[in-house]
Design goal:
single chain; alpha/beta; seven-stranded mixed sheet; 58% helix; 7% strand; globular
Amino acid sequence: MASIASFLAAGYFYADGVQWLDPARVVLLAISTAWLAWGAGLALNGLLSAREKRALAAPPQRVSTARTAVLVPVYNEDPTKSFSHVAAMARSLDRLGIGGQFDFAILSDTNDPRIARQEEFWLARLKGEVGEACKVFYRRRESNPGKKAGNISDFIKTSGALYDYLIILDADSLMEGATMVEMVRRIEAEPDLGLLQTLPKVVRARSFFGRAIQFSASYYSPVYARGLAMLQGREGPFWGHNAIVRTRAFAGSCGLPELPGQPPFGGHILSHDYVEAALLARNGWRVRLDPDLRGSFEEGPDNVVDFAKRDRRWCQGNLQHGRLLAVPGLKAWNRFVFIQGIMAYVAAPLWALFLVASIVAPAMKVIPDYFPVPGLLPVFPRVEQANALALLTGVFGLLIGPKLLILLDGAMTGRNRRFGGSLRCFFSVVAEVACTSLLAPVMMMFQSRAVIQVLAGLDAGWPAANREAERVSLSEAWAASWWIVVAGSLTIGAAYRLAPDYLPYVMLVTGPQLLAPLLISGTSFAAAALRRRFGLFATIEERVPTSVMRLQEGILLRWRSDVAAEAGEAAARPIQPLRDTHTPAGAGRTH
């Protein structure tokens, strides 16, 4: 695909003469198109591969005595929400009658004293809710070197020997008890399996943006994941959460070094999950993704601003992997995964550079005379326009084509019925494509800025996730994206002055950038009415919530209602009259 794009681009760029920017444009386009083609290839591989559904692992002949710790790292987040997830999972395990084989460990890196006090309060409430179903442990580090990976490492050093397996979650993760049991069965049945990764579905999204991501994760992701699972062999992915690891394998393989130098390229490894998967594979352990495992959930950002903040940290972590490409003993696939992760962010500035080069190049050329003989047909301009049209069609085809094929496959296999029918899926796909197409130029700017910041030596740190974000106001959206509007305006002005023939193509990118504040604010509004009225972005989990989802929702609602009632009672108490505050001589002073 990259070769075809290069051929078409060369025919287009060289039609009016050749100068030094043209080969650079061809190379930039070839690299960017190859990246798009890789994603499309995963989707095609997933569609063409057999829909593998692993059979449940055979129960062991003896009663399993395996002990499993469920690790829940938290960092400056609402404990009411995250602890309700723990309570629901513990109750789900208890209903299966094996809760005693699972312990929950809440690993807090919270450094906000106010939230730390809330965690202590809700820990007592959590233990009262869970009762004897599962043991719940809590530990808060005074300092948090290594962030999440460092917290898990500390747990393994102090308590890991007590457990055969570790299920690693995030603060927003939610899993069915039956899913956790099946994960233990599968890893116990295969002694060389070091890590088993599930495919988490995004749930509980409220905004138009969040629901578009939620629909993508539920509708497209299983196909892409199936294609990835077919290619990866023994060196599968680890996404840092909603996975089970063999404690002995993880402890013996995944000690992460602190990279020499200062952040962003030195210090603790931010995107630790890819590195841990590579280290497991280097030590001979198998790492596998099982897309057929259901009952694994997470929550995602509900607006573009929070998504970009999280993406900034991921960008720094992925670019940091450039220092690990030459580490001895790594498998070829793991090195390729590092390159993929780097390319996921470098692709944005490459597209931006291609756009800039395409505007500047025509102004540097001497346009040849296509009509040396009167009446000669304009053959070359027609060829040039045909190449441009074919190139543009190919790029959009790589972006949209796989999604349309997944829609068609869903109609043929009956999968669409689980999402409300093919008609609703069609409108959801169209809306999702429209949303992502409009936001793509905006995200390109956020990612390009992130890459530039990292290369300039700016450290993003590890900001806390805002999982309960409300709608982004227009003023907040403007504050976050005014520079994108300015950049888009300058690009349009440059195209109008230097390459007016390119202006229609440039507007495909710069048009959404001019509207960035409106797009960011508009896509953050609550979209529940669209689901109820039109079924837009409906997912299986929304249509038929699983038992653990219903448990968590009920627990959270009850907890928040109790807190509101207690606050109301406190407010309704009569105000006591002021007393004499003078303390008698010799009496103790009350604080």
